[in-house]
Design goal:
By secondary structure, this protein is of the alpha+beta class. The protein has a single domain, classed as Beta Polymerase, domain 2. Helix content is 35%, strand content 22%. The protein has helices spanning 8-16, 29-42, 71-89, 119-125, 127-130; strands at 46-52, 62-68, 95-97, 104-108, 112-118, 135-138. A six-stranded mixed β-sheet has the order 3-4-5-2-1-6.
Length: 150
């Protein structure tokens, strides 16, 4: 019997990794994060922050964090991001967690992970503090450009 190459499962997993996914129809991580920031801002989210994890972690390239002031606004932000990215580039989150509770919703787009918090959870978990070694940029309502995404 001859040895076969890597299994199909290993091949699929390597294509799903944040660093290995390079489909031409999907924007790169900074462009995708920029689209997500715009979708979040269109729903009037508060405290929008982009965390660049490329130099401190292999798990993903960017976190995009924001706060909704009510459970209805959290839902609207998540729905808005999902619809906007699907319409723009045909991508859906690989996984979404917390949607039914609307206190902390995580949307995993592999290269970009979106965290939509209610005010209480945002203050309690303070992801900016946990990832303080990464580059962090607060996105003002008036900002035309997010410097970390250039």
């Amino acid at each position: 019997m001859s040895k076969k190459g890597p299994s199909k499962a290993v091949d699929v997993l390597s294509k799903l990794s944040a660093k290995g996914r390079k489909r031409p129809d999907v924007p790169d991580a900074p462009a995708l994060a920029g689209m997500i920031v715009e979708a979040i801002r269109s729903k009037k989210a508060k405290d929008v922050v982009v965390i660049d994890l490329r130099e401190v972690s292999e798990m993903t390239d960017f976190f995009v964090l924001c706060t909704g002031e009510s459970d209805l606004q959290v839902k609207a932000i998540v729905d808005g991001v999902r619809e906007s990215i699907k319409d723009a580039v045909g991508e859906r989150p690989w996984r979404t967690e917390g949607y039914s509770h609307r206190q902390w919703v995580l949307m995993d787009y592999v290269d970009v992970v979106v965290h939509v918090f209610d005010t209480e959870r945002r203050d309690y978990y303070s992801l900016e503090r946990l990832w303080a070694d990464a580059k962090i940029e607060e996105v003002s309502d008036e900002a035309d450009v997010v410097a970390l995404l250039k």
